[in-house]
Write a structure and sequence with these properties.
The protein has 7 helices and 7 strands. The protein has 241 residues and is α/β, with parallel strands linked by helices. The protein has a 7-stranded mixed beta sheet. Helix 5 runs antiparallel to helix 6. The termini are far apart.
Length: 241
């Protein structure tokens, strides 16, 4: 399990550029949750892997934390072996029925996870978050940008230098680049669109911010990841980011 976890982290954080890109999601969370007035966090994270996000949140702000993960590459097993305190808990979660957050948590995190979940199943997760999160809670979600020029660059890079990735037909490459993902057979990253995810999130929450990362001041379509900040529909407040 530890070997799998090491391989995963090595893939993401080995090179300087990939490390910068993949750390951007954690730095975004750090920026939002480090703000004055954001305290006593009761955090639920979906897709926590080894709990890396905990390194980016001030410990003084965390009242408790529950991380859910399917343990695909051994991250959850590694996290459970860490001594992080009684207020930190990790739970196995492979389906929405395994996802049982406590009522009244006030911070929901999901970083680069929702692209792996089919929309009909994702609805089940989001319904639980909507029902159980505190009315003053905050929802932070990041997903990869898999459309436009960024998709095309990633696809070409993986094809030329790694010889791997999701298989696309020529027409699917065109449709994915143009953003017509409904014409692409869905398989995790393949056929995923953050624009469609935004519409889904709007069914359950107030989507108050959609920003590209790591280049926050660049257009979303020119960023490798997209970060959402949402609030429960009964709450109209906004954290300035």
């Amino acid at each position: 399990m530890n070997d799998k976890k090491s391989n995963y982290n090595q893939r993401l954080f080995k090179s300087r550029i990939r490390k910068w890109l993949h750390l951007s999601r954690f730095n975004f969370v750090k920026k939002i949750l480090s703000k004055k007035g954001v305290n006593s966090l009761r955090i639920v994270e979906l897709g926590c892997f080894d709990g890396k996000v905990l390194d980016f949140i001030p410990k003084s702000k965390i009242f408790n934390y529950i991380g859910y993960d399917a343990d695909w590459e051994g991250g959850l097993s590694s996290a459970k072996n860490k001594s992080l305190g009684e207020n930190i808990e990790f739970r196995f979660c492979k389906t929405a029925s395994d996802f049982c957050p406590p009522e009244g948590f006030n911070c929901f995190l999901s970083l680069e996870t929702m692209e792996h979940i089919e929309e009909n199943l994702l609805n089940e997760y989001l319904q639980k978050v909507e029902k159980l999160i505190d009315k003053d809670g905050i929802i932070i979600i990041t997903v990869p940008n898999e459309i436009g020029i960024i998709f095309l660059l990633k696809y070409l890079y993986k094809s030329l230098f790694h010889g791997k990735g999701y298989e696309y037909s020529f027409s699917e490459i065109i449709w994915q680049t143009l953003g017509f993902t409904e014409k692409v057979k869905r398989n995790q990253h393949k056929g995923f669109s953050y624009i469609k995810l935004k519409k889904l999130l709007e069914k359950y929450f107030n989507v108050q911010s959609v920003k590209g990362t790591p280049l926050l001041y660049f257009p979303n379509l020119l960023n490798f990841s997209i970060a959402f900040i949402c609030r429960p529909k009964l709450n109209s407040s906004l954290i300035d980011n």
